[in-house]
Amino acid sequence: MNNSTPATDDGNDKKKFKRDRSPCSPSRVLHLRQIPSDVTEAEVISLGLPFGKVTNLLMLKGRSQAFLEMASEEAAVTMVNYYTPATPHLRSQPVYIQYSNHRELKTDNLPNQARAQAALQAVNAMQSGSLAITSALAAEGALLPGQSSVLRIIVENLFYPVTLEVLYQIFCKFGSVLKIITFTKNNQFQALLQYADPMNAYYAKMALDGQSIYTGCCTLRIDFSKLISLKVKYNNDKSRDFTRLDLPSGDGQPPLEPSIAAAFGLSIPAIPGALGSLAVTTSAASGQMTIPGVTGVPGNSVLLVSNLNPEAITPHGLFILFGVYGDVHRVKIMFKKKENALVQMADATQAQLAISHLNGQRLYGRVLRATLSKHQTVQLPREGQEDQGLTKDYSNSPLHRFKKPGSKNFQNIFPPSAILHLSNIPPSVTVDDLKNLFASTGSTVKDFRFFQKDCKMALIQLGSVEEAVHALIELHNHDLGENHRLRVSFSKSTI
């Protein structure tokens, strides 16, 4: 058996896997963890396809792991950068992707490789099939893809505002959108949009050129840009890099040209009947991922949260929980129907992130539902209006996790899990102190360990994901004495 394969079961191999957990440098071989046991080879391959050709695959179902080899290191880097902030899901289970220490996969003499090779051949045949279609189109004089994955988009007859989110929502149907820059030139609203793959750009151009976003106006004129890649400095309403959530918003930039200030400055209400064939059929993904079944106003940062347990839920509880995925500005629990609440996030990307991680999560014995709301803001009660403290403004809270541009917190956003990451622990606090603290919230503590380098951080494993959600709500910012307040986040590590 070839020694460079990662499939043997000997002790050396376990070392290799440990090493695979924190690889130093990019590699075209990617290591996938936590893949569902019933997943197919084709489903795993599909994660890599938007970014380029997949050249090899090794499934280790017994360990819920797989290795995926891309044709180039560049494709692998793009894939990791795209999926790090937007965790991909297979069969609704989050899958974690990182570089492997293996430079290539040698699987020739391994058993059970026939299925993987058959799946790769089928996918490659499909890809060459789509290339055959495009060469036929080329013969008829159509533009051949392959030059650029960047499209230049001009919006003519701009009657209603077109935002970066609306463009994302339309174009993400054709593949992974990596970056968008919007600007005004010659009094026309324009955009540059970069896909992960030139084929995506080609299909989007074929399908959308000449279409109108809203009935009878906002017509798209699309061609290929001469640029090969876009450079985005700021993530804001004019430009966004979906592979880097840590970019600053660049508030100090010069203001927008007045001609399109309306396109961004107004939070326009939904215009009845105006959303034509395009925007209405796409999912209202306004951040970095498409989530089917989410409806609402594109670009909206207000969430409707329903099926809450009215006996247990408080505005503060929702503030802390949703605050794991973005900065919560306001929370309103409905006065007459306390199972429902509105949660206003700092921006649409954070709202989308919260939906993707919290919709379907169990909270106080019920399955929470989160979608985009029709409301654009959460109204505070007028003076003298009865509210019972159900509406709270948190816009100036010191507990926001994402205030600092480039904060490490952007890189540590994970789905709810039974394992919590604890930090800011003072030296005097012991293992037993922390175990007892979590037990006092009704949690079962299954495992605990301090980080080896310092005892300021620890991992704690509780009885279930739901227990961990409740513990995070109760204990994040808990006063541990010595001017230390406990910071609690969900972890992707295992103990």
Which features characterize this protein?
disordered N terminus; 495 residues; 4 domains; Alpha-Beta Plaits; alpha+beta; 6-stranded antiparallel sheet; globular; 22% strand; 26% helix
Quick recap:
The chain has 495 residues and is an alpha+beta fold. Helices cover 26% and strands 22% of the residues.
| Helical/strand content category | alpha+beta
The overall strand count is 23
Q: Spans with pLDDT under 50 lasting ≥5 residues?
A: 1-5, 7-22, 129-146, 252-298
- Write down the overall mean pLDDT: 78
**CATH 4th-level superfamily of the largest domain:** RRM (RNA recognition motif) domain
- Contiguous helical run count: 12
Q: Per the principal axes of the C-alpha atoms, what is the gross shape?
A: globular
Describe the structure.
The protein has 12 helices and 23 strands. With 495 residues, the chain is of the alpha+beta class. Strand 14 (328-333) and strand 15 form a beta hairpin. The chain is globular and about 60 Å long. The relative contact order is 0.08. Mean pLDDT is 78; it is low at 1-5, 7-22, 129-146 and 252-298.
